[in-house]
Every structure is written in structure tokens, then in C-alpha cells.
Design brief:
mainly beta, globular, binds cobalt (II) ion, 7-stranded antiparallel β-sheet, about 50% strand, 2 helices, 8-stranded mixed β-sheet
């Protein structure tokens, strides 16, 4: 029998300044939702191509970046670099330390749009070696359980369709729903996972034990209690086409002590993180004297160099089609 989760909180993500000339809508990591274990931050970013997130460190967490429009380039102090295209994601485990640069690019000067999620690492994995996993758009299956609902299964299982596995160290699910007016949806949730949704555009109504709840509009997050195994809702006939993400992750039973991009379980470890970063040791050795190539900004020429290098690894600039599973195949 289905047990529906109740709503803990609905929060509006107001636009705020972040990085160098960037604007973000933050729904986790704000005063009325400091964190939602294992999640530390969610930013819906919409940045001008001359803005960006130049050289900065991370420790003790994972970041999951989804690009929705145009391109995001990245480069880190180990010499790795790459290009995320529309629909691509990058799962990055900062572990004991990474210093990197994340910079937008668009061919026509329009803004770069996407989402960045920060995920806490279990205490015993906080100081593991850094690693990356690029998840290319082509690797993400799309399930269409009916004419009005389409789900990109980024991580987890939706309507019986499974994603690529083992993307992050902290177990998590990530779905991108597109629902037409009048469409109804239902997503199962692991009972041990905290889950929430963020509405990119349009509006939704979630079902609770007493029927349909109130209408929740774009740029709001809905946080659920961990009191059921399913969330269910609809997009009203009177709404426009609606996009939202549903994100859930293993709740971690540990303190969160965060100072900017350093996330530990004690104040003492935060002090060590600052000290290690400043003196380039214990994971930050390569930070000494390092500056990224892309941090000063990405022009057409540099973008060509980076995208050609991606092509040489078998990834074309234009993402190929997703694998689509329709209701007849379910
Ligand atoms: Co970063």
C-alpha cells in the first residue's frame, strides 16, 4: 500500500548574488533551511557568460552540477578539465580537497542556466581522494509513463526505469520531471532518504492524506517529511507546462559544521581545512602556485580548444538523443 509523505515546508528561493557577477536562487543553505541532510545547498543559477565561479576550494562534500542551457566549463588543480553541455551533469567528490574553477560559456551571449547541489559526505569518506563522474545527457534515460508526464531519470528509479548507478558516494536520487497541464505524477522514495522538489517553471499541487494541497508556484521548494514512501501530485489544467526536479538522499546521522566550501563534523576539522588550504598540505598540495586557465573567462577560442579536447574523447558538442521508454514498454 502506498504511504504518502506529508509536506514539512514550502520555501521561496529569492534571487541573490553569488560568485563573480552571478545570480542564483538558493533553496537550501538559507536561514529558514540551513541544510536538509545530506543536502547542504541547492542553487538554481542563471549567469551571464562573463560571470562565473573562478578558482575556489572544496573539502568534505560532493557537488552535483546540472546544466540546462548553454555550457559550463570546469578545470581543477590536478590538470583535469572539461565541458558540460545542455542536459549533462557532473558528480564531483571533493573529498580531502579540490581547487577548481567553474565558468559559463554561450555562443550567442545568452545566460547559462543550471542547478548546483551540495551533498554532505559520510564522516568516514570526507577525506577520500577527489574524483569526478560526468554523466552525459545521452546516458540519462527518459521515461514517459503517459502522454502528459516525462521524467529524465538522472539517478534512481522512476516508473520502473533505472538510471546509471553509483554516481555519488552518498546514496541519492535525482529526477527531472516535465509535466503538461492536467498531468498527474507519482514518485517513490526510499524511506531512509530525505526528499524535496524544486519547481523550475509552472506550478504543482501535491496530494496529502486529506486530498489535494495548495498550489505551489515556480521557484519554490517543497520539503517532505520522512513519513512515507511516495509523493504524488498534479499540474492543474489551468497551469502552464511545468518542470521540476525531485531530489532525495540518504539522511546522515552526523553533525554538519560548514564554513563556505569546507564541510566537516567538528569546528576543529574546519580549522584544519583552512590551515591545510592556506599552507597547501593534506590534500591541497597542488594548490601551491596554481591558477586555472579558464578562471579569467572563456572566449570563443578557449571554448573551441576545450570542446575539441572533449570531442577527442568521443563526446560531440551536440548531445545525441536520450533513450526514451514509453508506457507500452513499461
Ligand atoms: Co565549486
Amino acid at each position: 500500500m502506498v504511504s504518502l509523505r506529508s509536506i514539512l515546508k514550502v520555501i521561496y528561493a529569492a534571487e541573490q548574488a553569488e560568485g563573480v557577477g552571478a545570480r542564483v536562487r538558493r533553496s537550501i543553505g538559507v536561514p529558514n533551511m540551513r541544510n536538509f541532510t545530506p543536502f547542504l545547498m541547492l542553487d538554481h543559477f542563471n549567469v551571464s557568460p562573463d560571470a562565473g565561479f573562478p578558482d575556489h576550494p572544496h573539502r568534505g562534500q560532493e557537488t552535483v552540477t546540472l546544466v540546462m542551457k548553454n555550457y559550463m566549463l570546469h578545470e581543477d588543480f590536478t590538470g583535469q578539465s572539461g565541458v558540460l553541455r545542455p542536459g549533462d551533469l557532473q558528480f564531483m567528490t571533493a573529498g580531502k580537497g579540490i581547487v577548481h574553477s567553474e565558468m559559463p560559456f554561450s555562443e550567442d551571449g545568452t545566460n547559462v542556466e543550471g542547478m548546483q547541489l551540495w551533498v554532505d559526505l559520510p564522516k568516514e569518506l570526507k577525506h577520500s581522494a577527489p574524483r569526478y563522474r560526468d554523466l552525459r545527457a545521452e546516458e540519462i534515460p527518459i521515461v514517459k509513463p503517459n502522454d502528459k508526464v516525462e521524467v529524465k531519470v538522472i539517478s534512481g528509479t522512476s516508473y520502473g526505469v533505472e538510471s546509471v548507478k553509483e554516481l555519488a558516494y552518498t546514496p541519492m536520487d535525482y529526477y527531472w520531471y516535465t509535466v503538461q497541464p492536467g498531468g498527474e505524477f507519482e514518485q517513490q522514495m526510499n524511506p531512509e532518504f530525505n526528499g524535496f522538489m524544486y519547481i523550475l517553471n509552472g506550478s504543482v499541487q501535491m496530494q496529502n492524506k486529506n486530498g489535494m494541497g495548495e498550489l505551489v508556484k515556480e521557484h519554490h521548494s517543497i520539503f517532505f517529511n520522512r513519513d512515507g514512501d511516495t509523493i504524488r501530485g498534479k499540474v492543474p489544467e489551468t497551469s502552464s507546462k511545468t518542470d521540476f526536479v525531485i531530489i532525495a538522499g540518504q539522511a546522515l546521522d552526523q553533525p554538519i559544521v560548514q564554513y563556505g566550501p569546507f564541510v566537516e563534523t567538528t569546528k576543529e576539522d574546519i580549522y584544519h581545512a583552512f590551515n591545510d588550504y592556506q599552507s597547501a598540505k593534506n590534500g591541497f598540495e597542488k594548490a601551491r602556485g596554481w591558477a586555472s586557465e579558464i578562471g579569467a573567462g572563456v572566449d570563443e577560442g578557449l571554448f573551441r580548444v576545450k570542446s575539441n579536447s572533449m570531442l577527442s574523447q568521443g563526446v560531440p558538442l551536440e548531445p545525441a538523443a536520450h533513450k526514451v521508454i514509453t508506457k507500452d514498454e513499461l
